[in-house]
Amino acid sequence: MFSKTCEYALRALIYIAQQSKNDSRVGIKDISKSINSPEHFIAKILQDLSRKGFVQSAKGPNGGFYMDEKNLGTNIADIVREIDGDKLFSGCGLGLDQCSEIHPCPLHNQFKSIRQDLRIMLETSKVQMFVDNLDLKLTYLKA
User: How buried is residue 59: exposed, middle or buried, by Cβ count under 10 Å (0-12/13-18/19+)?
Assistant: First the structure.
């Protein structure tokens, strides 16, 4: 459903948010190991997300990535849109370029409601909500 870049970004941001509770900062090596992602790839993703304001970073011996209150309130849909664009929320279920209300693909009508439900779910899901569920051990980032 999400691109690999988006999957790693979401896992990394949720992990960073969880580690940021006590004003902690987390480094690339720790993030990479904790979410099972290639170190170089996650570094590039986080550099881009930091530049766009989805995560904070600090350099130096006590540096690393962290999230502030504003970041914790970010909805997941905004992160997905930033990385994967709007295709998940508006694209054709079969990947056809010409699919529309006037010229629907065989999945169009059923897929339209699935896309809408997915958009609503991701727009109402905040990073903090996932951290809370991890803390309560209701969800897991790694087996």
Answer: exposed
